[in-house]
Specification:
The complex is a heterodimer.
Chain A (H helix, E strand, L loop, with lengths): L8 H24 L5 H5 L2 H34 L5 H9 L6 H12 L6 H8 L7 H26 L2 H9 L4 H12 L1 H17 L2 H6 L10 H11 L1 H23 L2 H4 L1
Helix pairs in contact in A: 1-13, 3-7, 3-10, 3-12, 7-10, 8-9, 10-13, 12-13
Chain B lengths: L1 E10 L2 E10 L3 E5 L6 H9 L6 E5 L2 E5 L2 E2 L7 E4 L11 H11 L4 H14 L15 H14 L4 E5 L7 H17 L4 E5 L2 H7 L2 E6 L2 E6 L1 H6 L4 H6 L3 E8 L2 E3 L4 E3 L6 E7 L23
Parallel strand pairs in B: 3-9, 3-10, 7-8, 8-9
Antiparallel strand pairs in B: 1-2, 1-4, 4-5, 5-6, 10-11, 12-13, 12-15, 13-14
Helix pairs in contact in B: 2-3, 2-4, 3-4, 4-5
Chain lengths: 262, 291
């Protein structure tokens, strides 16, 4: 007896609606784009400035998140200390925290009248808010969890006996970290950096709260999209298209790497 | 110039307790069934399990009361069961890493690695990655990497387990040659009695975390002290109670060549067993009827 099992409509229909729901707005972005004025618009100072600010800050944030996040992941995966679980939770909190809350928190900590900000100003003459460095700080705050998460996952999957083998040869912990651990988790590290960079590139809430909107200094692409929407919608659409293309490229780049491992 | 070990290790509910001395230049084979605690003992000696009793090398305490020298400062070289060659480093880089980690300068390490590569006949493979060479070649690289660190003690955990039977004999000969050039104490772990008998100056048998016998391969062959030892050296061992040379083993009675009393082990070598069509007269002391 042959029995054909039909896909139930009650699952098929919502599934198809979900696909349309995801794709239709993106299609609208492409359809409504001012293709005829593209070449003129894309070299406008607003777009070029936003591109430059975004490129510099997001790369800076990805590097800073790596420099801080990988050692943190190492501590979480390879050492025991009181409150380790709490620290892990805190390190991942920015994933869930509304970015605008993060931005406000940064302002209270590092702002001109913030707890550490006042001291930074007095001691070093350094002001983070409303500066390009401030954009990097805001982006790092929200992007670092991606690095901690991927690096810690990779460390937990790494066969620790390789580290033991290096230790029996006399290698110090730092040497083991640099010569054995980092090269062996490099693919995951690359994926983590890419994710962190993508998150930094798209960062809006914490950035506009902490660093504001100073064209050419702190106005990144997402901030410019939001500002331009009210007066020059073409600029907003073009910037959005660029961000869409970058996101797609990252998705394709990660397919063979990170997404398969999870 | 020796290794002295007196440790007690508790791990996952089972314990390993062992007391062991290995002289410089001596090769001790740690023989035992799977799960006897051989690898655990090696890891303890290397310092990978934290403080676990007393370990000293050349009279210097590595582990003991108020002392614990960390693995990276012990100069105890280990060849692990699955070798653990660094997959991202070439053969040469693996060996340079071994030399460099033991404290050699950059140029010193390179020089020492070059000598080791020649000693182990690895020149042709120097630029290859571990995954692109054969199992026997990897074995040689692992040994070379350990040697390049100039360890004071050498520990080898089942070094031939990953090899196929054909290359095993060849690699064993190669390893034996190199081990005999090593000036310090060596402990080699195996569950293969043949390896033990071929490579060992002295065999230490570990069963369920305890040393049950130690001696030269000849000692083991002629006077096995547990059924495991007897079975691995090819001898049938019976446990029983003797009265005036008659041994009751619970299923059969054996007559010994000497008058002995008390609890005994009786070893019956396969060589000493003969089959007859009719009940034999004269020489055999013990006669059993085949079922």
């Amino acid at each position: 007896m042959k029995r054909t099992s039909h896909l139930p409509w009650s699952l098929l229909v919502p599934g198809l609606i979900a696909v349309v729901f995801l794709l239709f707005p993106l299609a609208a972005l492409v359809i409504k784009a001012p293709w005829s004025e593209m070449t003129a618009e894309i070299s406008s100072p607003e777009i070029l400035n936003a591109l430059r600010v975004s490129l510099v800050t997001s790369v800076g944030a990805a590097l800073l998140a790596t420099a801080l996040g990988v050692p943190l992941a190492y501590l979480l995966a390879r050492t025991t200390f009181p409150g380790r679980r709490l620290v892990r939770g805190l390190a991942l909190l920015p994933l869930l925290l509304p970015p605008v809350v993060g931005g406000l928190a940064l302002l209270l900590a590092f702002g001109r009248r913030g707890i550490a900000g006042e001291w930074l100003l007095d001691a070093f003459g350094l002001t983070l808010p409303f500066s390009t460095a401030g954009v990097v700080v805001a982006q790092t705050f929200v992007a670092m969890p991606f690095l901690v998460l991927t690096a810690e996952g990779a460390l937990n999957n790494l066969d620790r006996r390789y580290e033991e083998a290096a230790t029996t040869m006399g290698a110090s912990r730092l040497s083991v970290f640099g010569h054995v651990i980092v090269p062996m988790i490099l693919p995951s590290l690359g994926a983590g950096m890419l994710l962190a960079w993508a998150r930094a590139l798209g960062e809006f809430g914490a950035t506009i709260t902490f660093a504001g909107n100073l064209p050419g200094v702190t106005t990144s692409m997402p901030v410019e999209v939001y500002i331009a929407l009210q007066t020059r919608p073409e600029t907003a659409i073009i910037l959005s298209l660029i961000l869409l293309v970058v996101s797609l490229a990252i998705l394709v780049g990660l397919r063979g790497n990170w997404l398969q491992h999870t | 110039m020796s290794l002295s070990v007196d440790v007690h290790i508790d791990l996952d509910g089972s314990s390993v307790e062992a007391r062991l001395e290995v002289e410089a230049g001596e090769i001790v084979v740690l023989l035992g069934p799977n799960g006897a605690g051989k690898t655990t003992l090696l890891r303890g000696i290397a310092g990978l399990l934290g403080p676990c009793g007393e370990v000293s090398v050349e009279g210097r305490a590595m582990d003991g009361p108020r002392t614990f020298v960390r693995t990276e400062d012990r100069r105890i070289g280990v060849v692990f069961q699955d070798l653990l060659l660094f997959p991202h480093m070439t053969v040469e880089k693996n060996i340079v890493f071994g030399a460099r980690s033991s404290g050699a300068t950059k140029t010193g390490a390179r020089e020492r690695a070059a000598n080791t590569i020649d000693d182990f006949d690895l020149r042709a493979l120097a630029g290859s990655l571990p995954r692109s060479i054969s199992g026997g070649e990897r074995q040689r690289v692992a040994l070379a990497r350990a040697f390049a660190g100039r360890p004071k003690v050498l520990l080898l955990d089942e070094p031939f387990a990953a090899l196929d039977a054909a290359s095993r004999v060849e690699i064993r000969t190669m390893v034996a040659l190199h081990l005999h050039t090593f000036a310090g104490p060596t402990i080699l772990v195996t569950h293969d009695p043949l390896e033990a008998l071929v490579l060992a100056d002295r065999v230490v048998v570990l069963e369920r975390g305890r040393i049950v016998q130690e001696g030269t391969p000849d000692d083991l062959r002629s006077r096995p002290r547990s059924s495991y030892v007897a079975s691995v050296v090819g001898i049938n061992l019976f446990h029983g109670v003797a009265t005036g040379g008659r041994i009751e083993t619970g299923g059969a009675t054996l007559v010994a060549a000497t008058e002995i009393d008390g609890e005994v082990f009786a070893a019956v070598h396969p060589r000493a067993v003969a089959l007859y069509r009719n009940r034999p007269e004269g020489t055999p002391r013990n006669v059993w009827r085949a079922a």
